[in-house]
Design goal:
Number of strands: 4
Strand content: under 5%
Helix content: 55-70%
Radius of gyration: 18 Å
Strand order of the largest sheet: 1-4
Distance between the termini: 28 Å
């Protein structure tokens, strides 16, 4: 559980491939700060630094399990609040039966569209949280530093940046995501 909590805090920072995709309903790549459709290394590094600082509460450059757990709990609380606000369509602070039914139907529809993708991410053989934590914790000391997060992010960035120009275009992003899905498919076979 500790590894999972630590991973949760670090995963969002450490993996720009996922960050290149739409994120929680936002349009376009998450790291695309200027909205031009192209993700640059500078944009990735700036956002990683900002995200790392949010988790590293004491500012010592290391994410501890206590910091990760506190951040994880805050994020869960924020998601619950946001979910309630989305469900409360008339904004009266209460959920009616009709609002709850509409939310349930919307979730069912989303599950139908994304069911296969979610099953692939959740199931599997030995990957998941533990594997991602081991990758982020490069020196295997049980702590994740900003340098480790940056190194992991830039490694993934380089894989997606097909022409090595320091930018990931929509075409490169789509190609990287297709490769990732192909690898996942092969692992499940």
């Amino acid at each position: 559980m500790t590894k999972f909590i630590l991973l949760t805090a670090a995963a969002a920072m450490a993996f720009p491939t996922a960050a290149m995709a739409d994120h929680h309903g936002q349009k376009g790549p998450r790291h695309d700060a200027n909205g031009d459709g192209i993700v640059t290394t500078a944009e990735v590094e700036a956002q990683l630094t900002e995200m790392f600082a949010k988790v590293d509460a004491d500012g010592n450059g290391i994410i501890t399990k206590e910091e990760a757990k506190a951040h994880h709990q805050a994020m869960r609380s924020e998601r619950r609040d946001t979910m309630f606000e989305k469900m409360d369509r008339d904004a009266n602070g209460q959920l009616s039966r009709a609002e709850m039914q509409a939310a349930q139907e919307q979730r069912a529809e989303m599950r139908g569209e994304r069911g296969q993708q979610r099953m692939g991410r959740r199931g599997g053989r030995g990957g998941g949280a533990g594997m991602m934590l081991r990758r982020a914790d490069a020196d295997k000391d049980g702590q994740i530093t900003l340098a480790e997060v940056r190194a992991q992010a830039m490694e993934r960035f380089a894989k997606a940046d097909a022409n090595s120009d320091g930018q990931i275009t929509a075409a490169e992003r789509d190609a990287a995501q297709a490769k990732m899905q192909e690898r996942r498919g092969k692992r499940r076979q």
